[in-house]
Amino acid sequence: VRTTRFLRRIPDALAALGFAAAMGCGSGETVDPKPDGGNDAGGKIPYETLSEYGFFSGDLKDQRPTANVHRYEVAAALWADHAEKDRFIVLPEGGKIGITDREDWAFPAGSIIIKTFRFLDDLREPEGPSRLIETRLLILEDEGWTSHTYVWDDAQENAVRTVAGKPITVSYVDAAGDPVEQPYNIPNTNQCKGCHARDDEVHLLGVATPQMNRSVGGKNQLSALADLFTKAPNPNDLEAFEDPFGNGPLEQRARAYLAANCGHCHRPGGGGGDSGLVLLAWETDPSKYGVCKSPAAAGAGTGGHEHDIEPGRPEDSIIPFRMASTDPDIKMPELPNLLPDERGIDLVSEWIASMPPVCP
Ligand code: HEC
Ligand code: HEC
Q1: Residue 37 burial by Cβ neighbours in a 10 Å radius (0-12, 13-18, 19+)
Q2: How much of the chain exceeds pLDDT 70, in percent?
Q3: How far does the centroid of ligand 2 lie from the alpha carbon of residue 278, in Å?
Q4: What is the pLDDT of residues 208-250, one digit of tens each?
Q5: pLDDT one-digit tens code per residue, 290-313
Q6: Which of 85, 90, 125, 221 has its CA 20 to 30 A from that of 177?
Q7: Is the pLDDT of residue 338 over 60?
Q8: What ligand has the least distance to the C-alpha of 272?
Q9: Distances in whole angstroms, Cα of residue 56 to Cα of each of 21, 87, 117
């Protein structure tokens, strides 16, 4: 009963948005949803193809948002093996978000967050052409946020829902101008929970106040999106992450990087919570965020080092050691990326090197 009720609501919300494709056509005019009057249309959520949601107008691959689909950026992105990302918030008609000081904004039922992964043809041309790989959705249903993945076809015309995930190869020209063939993992939908769930509940990770409280195109993003909230936020009163690779203070940049890339697991209730290592940006106890902290488990994962962070000595610290590893038993983050993030390792190492030696 519960499911049926929900399943009706989302297509209604999509229909109210004028999402023509949700109603079986891609042209933008409003038509009667489905032959049976629409109630059954909801049975199709999640749709088998991305185009059916009607999020975008024109060529799907251009991802030109329709009304109620709002592009956003985070301050500190998750490293994903050189992939670029596009992110959008979709609200049901009239729906508003209740903002919070930090995380777990209150979204109306039927909200959808979209994240597309794509590879630039040439890493030296950030505005140049790119190839779309996968589009991930989190949809707020009665049981909470549900995860879905759509894999783009070779023609770049549409993306088809997959549950299993798959390893693929991507090709591009790298920053040095050399052609690269790189393995890339499209995760299966069970793996989403590995990062998005804590205490068994799926949470949004980047759609959070310190991540969204940043400048985009010369304007504060929370202010630019003010209409989406029940009450316009005041960005000056709210926490903001530093851009890890910007010009801000080193410590805040490194902490923002670790929060974005590791904090979803390394926190109480998260997948790495039992290790006791807390990589949230607002953790104030240095011994919790790794300084002079002995690892919970001995073995290969330590690289023979004593502490997660050995102040002043990145080369003797477990954190950068595990970030640089490609051994599946050692590497951090655990899954599903394959390549170490050299810039991230440099940043965290620079921060550790800047700490005065303090361990007993
Ligand atoms: C390795 C950890 C990890 C895994 C696995 C993962 N995500 Fe995420 N996801 C993140 C992080 C961190 C963010 C926020 C940072 C960003 O947007 O770059 C995020 C952001 C998102 C967003 C934007 C909304 C938000 O939470 O901020 C969507 C949608 C999303 N993920 C869907 C998925 C789906 C679907 C899967 C499974 C197929 C998945 N993710 C697997 C870590 C992960
Ligand atoms: C998908 C969840 C997940 C992500 C993301 C993740 N970790 Fe972990 N991490 C774990 C788990 C589980 C353990 C405990 C088992 C082990 O040591 O392998 C752990 C253990 C560790 C340890 C040993 C800590 C101790 O004191 O015992 C370090 C150091 C570490 N992770 C660093 C990182 C860093 C740095 C990142 C981000 C770049 C990261 N992890 C991202 C799950 C994760």
Answers
A1: exposed
A2: 88
A3: 10
A4: 999 999 999 999 999 999 999 999 999 999 999 999 999 999 9
A5: 999 999 998 889 999 999 999 999
A6: 85
A7: yes
A8: 2
A9: 9, 12, 16
Structural tokens at position 108: 């109306």
Q: What atom in ligand 2 is closest to the CA of residue 261?
A: 37
322: pLDDT strictly greater than 50? yes
205 neighbors 221 (Cβ within 8 angstroms): no
Reading the block at residue 45, the tokens are 């959520």
Contact 160, 133 (CB under 8 A): no
Residue whose Cα lies nearest atom 3 of ligand 2: it is 265
Q: Can you tell me which residue has the tokens 């951090």? A: 332
Least confident range from 146-150, 156-160, 268-272, 296-300: namely 296-300
Residue nearest atom 41 of ligand 1, based on CA coordinates: 192
Whole-number Å distance, alpha carbon 325 to ligand 2 midpoint, is 12
Pocket test for ligand 2, best of 191, 198, 257, 277 (most atoms within 8 A of CB): 277
Q: State the Cα–Cα distance between residues 84 and 131, nearest whole angstrom.
A: 10
> If you measure from the C-alpha of residue 255 to the centroid of ligand 2, how many angstroms do you get, rounded to a whole number?
15
Residue 165 Cβ < 6 Å to ligand 2:
no
- What is the arithmetic mean of pLDDT over 154-174? 95
Name which of 263, 288, 211 is nearest 242 in CA terms.
Answer: 211
pLDDT tens figures, 129-141: 999 999 999 999 9
Residue type, 70: H
Place of tokens 């170490």: 340
Query: Does the CB atom of residue 194 touch ligand 1 within 6 A?
Result: yes
Q: Whose CA is nearest to atom 35 of ligand 2?
A: 319
Q: Which two tokens stand for residue 1?
A: 């009963």
Cβ distance 221 to 89 under 8 Å?
A: no
Neighbours of 355 (CB within 10 A): 17
pLDDT band, residue 23 (cuts 50/70/90)? very low
207 lines ligand 1 (CB under 6 A): yes
Measured between alpha carbons, how far is 329 from 43 in angstroms, rounded to an integer?
41
Sign of CA dihedral 259, 262, 266, 268: positive
**pLDDT, position 32:** 33
